[in-house]
Write a structure and sequence with these properties.
The complex is a heterodimer of chains A (249) and B (404).
Chain A (H helix, E strand, L loop, with lengths): L19 E14 L2 E14 L3 E5 L6 H8 L7 E6 L2 E2 L5 H10 L1 E4 L11 H12 L3 H14 L15 H13 L5 E5 L7 H16 L4 E4 L3 H4 L4 E6 L2 E7 L6
Parallel strand pairs in A: 3-8, 3-9, 6-7, 7-8
Antiparallel strand pairs in A: 1-2, 1-4, 4-5, 9-10
Helix pairs in contact in A: 3-4, 3-5, 4-5, 5-6
Chain B lengths: L1 H16 L1 H39 L3 E6 L16 H11 L4 E14 L2 E10 L2 H5 L4 E4 L4 H5 L4 E4 L3 H4 L4 H4 L3 E4 L2 E9 L13 E5 H8 L8 E5 L6 H16 L9 E5 H44 L1 H9 L4 H38 L7 H27 L3 H6 L2
Parallel strand pairs in B: 3-8, 5-7
Antiparallel strand pairs in B: 1-9, 1-10, 2-3, 2-6, 2-9, 4-7, 5-8, 6-7
Helix pairs in contact in B: 1-2, 1-12, 2-10, 2-12, 2-13, 3-9, 10-12, 10-13, 12-13
Bound molecules: adenosine-5'-triphosphate (ATP) and magnesium ion.
Chain lengths: 249, 404
């Protein structure tokens, strides 16, 4: 098991060996519900390189969200190992994981998960607050990201005053504000109509074009087709993993 | 830290967003704190009043009283305090200290058609100077009048009222004490009293007159006052008095005395002990309401944590650590309690003022009481806030995000 891999966790932050951002080995997540055990993720080995745009697909209940939560350090695996940027995160403490979530990962949720009482600007500033940045610097960076997603004129609006697409763009700005190594999006267009979905996907494509590593969960084939690589999960295992033709240049 | 500002802002924001709920919850703390402050203010006020009374009565005065030896029967063989004792004191230590014996009886006093019952005190002329009794009208009696057992009287400032005649008009008139005619030679200025003596209601006559003409040969003194030149000299005065009276009474220094020597601060001490117990009791009861207020805070914080589970999840997903979340909720509870404490202190000042205005009872809000009340409400915030805050901080980010 260890041969050839043991060197990985010696790298600090920054990109891992050969520009590998994600490396998992036998990643598992089981839920024990009384007598029954739900095997949501049953052993996933995967490697994602820097700059990739991965679309994860699969039927409902196949373990996509569970896998994303493990990758995003929101959840801890039942078994298996996970290296992020060459750092073994499957054995970090709670506080260290909070730091990793804060510095290395940007998460975009299907349900946006914005703070309803805070302005767009404040929502985007949140990760920087927990990173301990002074307010001037926070404001500058948050404004920059909001401009990037086309919401320069909605900074002081609160989520209830925004459309679904605008809310998701605030969420994307928030995910990007710490310049994370990895942008994770679990069905970011799941709650949006097709036109708005396309706008969001275009933003993601643009972000990937300027170098952002992205993993995206989607049910829709045309959105998956926009990615550089597709991974199909089935019943907690990787069923297919392939590059999209014509996408890589 | 920059995080700390955010934490405080979030706490304030949450309190503001639920203003009514926060206000009602805080009311428990407000009322509790106000009650504690008021109770302590009442106790403190009572103590200050006694303190003032004692200062008014003179802090340099020792009072010698007969009896009161712990194991002495009231009647059997217990020696009285007599004029001889006072004379012995005057002979031996009168150069340094002022001495005034006192014999007292409540007697019928009449003038014209008025009729009242007053405390009549037989004493020496030194009494007036010793107790700083100044004259409003007329004069004090003198040594010659004591020697001559003259029937002259000096009235306390309230006595003219009792006799329904202005003080100025009474000087030179004759009043009847127990049917015996007395010439009024002076009326004193108002002195103010204490709960154990009311000189303004008393009538002062020469000691000899009192003993032989009014009280029928009674020679038992109520007390002998000894005034030291200053309050610092009470200890040597005490020793001198003890020595002189023991010699008079033929009591060895090793034996138990058949008299007692008190100073005004003894009275204060006894009184303070009683008030303090009482104040503590009342403040304790008030403290219980503060505790109940604290439970209210805990309740509302638990509700708040549950309501904001998703928010906690979002914050954790974005990098908030356990400690950050813990502080966020702890500070919210703390702010609620300290806010309540400050309002409660203000309320306490108000109600103490109100009590003074309505009932004339003296109150005093001690700065220590304010500090303790504020500290206590902060402690309650910490104590009752820590559990809800902990519950929030240990939430799993993914569980919190999934919470519906
Ligand atoms: N907290 C949980 N407790 C118990 N079982 C769970 C839990 N979370 C997920 N599961 C189970 O794990 C399996 C995978 O769930 P997951 O949410 O990862 O699926 P998914 O691929 O994201 O589905 P969808 O496309 O509907 O979002 C499902 O069978 C689900 O019931
Ligand atoms: Mg899902």
């Amino acid at each position: 098991m260890r041969n050839g891999k043991s060197g990985r966790d010696m790298h600090g932050s920054g990109t891992g060996v050969n520009g590998v951002v994600i490396h998992t080995e036998g990643l598992r997540k089981y839920y024990i519900l009384g007598a029954e055990t739900v095997r949501a993720v049953r052993g996933v080995d995967m490697e994602v390189a820097r700059g990739e745009f991965v679309a994860i697909m699969g039927p409902s209940g196949s373990g996509k969200s569970t896998f994303m939560n493990l990758i995003g350090c929101l959840d801890t695996p039942t078994a298996g190992d996970y290296w992020l940027n060459g750092r073994k995160v499957s054995e970090l403490s709670d506080d260290q994981l909070a730091r990793v979530r804060n510095r290395d990962i940007g998460f975009v949720f299907q349900t946006f998960n914005l703070l309803p009482r805070a302005s767009s600007l404040h929502n985007v500033e949140l990760p920087l607050i927990y990173a301990g940045l002074p307010s001037k610097e926070r404001r500058r960076r948050a404004e920059e990201k909001l401009e990037l997603v086309g919401l320069g004129d909605r900074m002081d609006h609160k989520p209830p005053e925004l459309s679904g697409g605008q809310r998701q763009r605030v969420a994307i700005a928030r995910a990007l504000v710490n310049d994370p190594a990895l942008l994770l999006a679990d069905e970011p267009t799941g709650n949006l109509d097709s036109v708005t979905s396309r706008e969001i996907v275009d933003i993601l494509i643009e972000l990937n074009r300027i170098g952002q590593t992205i993993i995206l969960v989607t049910h829709e084939a045309d959105i998956a087709a926009a990615a550089s690589r597709q991974i199909h999960l089935s019943d907690g295992l990787v069923e297919r993993d392939f590059m999209n033709e014509g996408m890589k240049n | 830290m920059f995080i700390l500002r955010e934490i405080v802002m979030v706490a304030m924001g949450s309190i503001r967003a639920n203003a009514l709920r926060s206000g009602l919850t805080t009311l428990g703390i407000v009322i509790g704190t106000a009650a504690v402050i008021t109770m302590v203010a009442l106790g403190e006020g009572a103590q200050r009043r006694v303190q003032e009374q004692i200062e008014n009565m003179g802090t340099n005065i020792l009072t010698v009283r007969p009896g009161q030896g712990m194991f002495r029967g009231v009647a059997s063989g217990s020696r009285r305090l007599e004029e001889d004792d006072a004379l012995a004191l005057r002979d031996q230590i009168g150069g340094v200290y002022q001495i005034a014996p006192e014999i007292e009886s409540r007697l019928q006093v009449t003038y014209s058609r008025s009729n009242s019952s007053n405390s009549v005190v037989g004493t020496w002329p030194s009494f007036f100077d010793l107790h700083s009794h100044e004259l409003a009208y007329g004069r004090h009696f003198d040594e010659g009048e004591v020697q001559g057992r003259r029937r002259v009287a000096v009235l306390g400032s309230n006595v003219p009222d009792d006799l329904e005649t202005p003080g100025g008009l009474l000087v030179g008139r004759t009043i009847q004490i127990r049917g015996i005619p007395f010439e009024v030679i002076g009326v004193l200025k108002e002195k103010g009293g204490a709960m154990w003596m009311q000189p303004d209601d008393q009538i002062f006559i020469p000691l000899s007159t009192a003993m032989y003409r009014v009280m029928g040969g009674r020679d038992r003194l109520r007390s002998i006052y000894v005034a030291a030149p200053s309050p610092d000299e009470l200890d040597p005065a005490w020793a001198e008095i003890d020595r002189v009276i023991r010699r008079e009474h033929r009591i060895l220094p090793t034996e138990e005395a058949d008299f007692s020597i008190q100073q005004s601060s003894d009275i204060l001490e006894t009184f303070n002990e009683t008030t303090q117990t009482f104040t503590l009791l009342l403040a304790g009861i008030a403290g219980v309401s503060l505790l109940v207020g604290g439970i209210g805070i805990m309740n509302i914080m638990l509700v708040s944590v549950t309501e904001r589970t998703r928010e906690i999840g979002v914050r954790k997903a974005l990098g908030a650590t356990r400690k950050t979340i813990l502080f966020q909720f702890l500070i919210e509870a703390l702010v609620l309690c300290v806010l309540g404490g400050i309002l409660g202190v203000a309320g306490g000042f108000g109600s103490a003022e109100l009590i003074t205005n309505l009932f004339g009872t003296q109150t005093a809000v001690a700065p220590e009481a304010v500090a303790v009340a504020l500290g206590f409400s902060a402690a309650i915030g910490l104590f009752f806030g820590i559990w809800p805050a902990r519950r929030a901080s240990v939430l799993d980010p993914i569980d919190a995000l999934r919470y519906e």
